[in-house]
Amino acid sequence: MKLTKRLEWGLFAAAAGRVAEPIAERAVLAAWRFAAGEDPPEDPAAPDVDWGRAIAWAMTAAAALAVAQVIARRGAAFAWERTTGRRPPPRGGKRRRRVRV
């Protein structure tokens, strides 16, 4: 089975994201420990966890992971372009059908 360029790119970008995820998790955990002087809440939904602390942890972790995904995808696009000599294929989506009048 031959993979299309779009599928190859999707697998390549997904692999880059999978590599970036644990690195970002370790970084945000270390940053939280440094800034707060304690571990983040294990279960932010637990009744004994302060709302502010739970929301701060959720926002910090989500932002760090989102930034890591952007960096990974941009890095993957750079590597793809350097290896293939072409830009990554555009994202797929629903194709719009032309309406004939």
Brief characterization of the structure:
By secondary structure, the chain is an all-alpha fold. The protein has helices at residues 5-36, 51-84.
Give an overview of the whole structure.
The chain is mainly alpha-helical and 101 residues long. 65% of the residues lie in helices and 0% in strands. The protein is built from 2 helices and no strands. It has helices spanning 5-36, 51-84. The chain is elongated and about 60 Å long. The termini are far apart.
Write the layout of secondary structure elements.
Layout: H1 5-36, H2 51-84
Helix pairs in contact: 1-2
Keywords:
mainly alpha; elongated; 101 residues
- Beta-strand portion reads under 5%
Chain-averaged pLDDT: 88
What is the molecular shape? elongated
- Stretches with pLDDT under 50, minimum 5 residues: none
Secondary structure: helix percent: 55-70%
Helix-strand string: HH
Please report the distance between the alpha carbons of the first and last residues. 40 Å
> Using only CA atoms, what is the Rg?
20 Å
Tell how many strands the DSSP assignment holds: 0
Q: Classify the secondary structure makeup into a structural class.
A: mainly alpha
**Biggest sheet, in brief?**
none
- Total helices: the number is 2
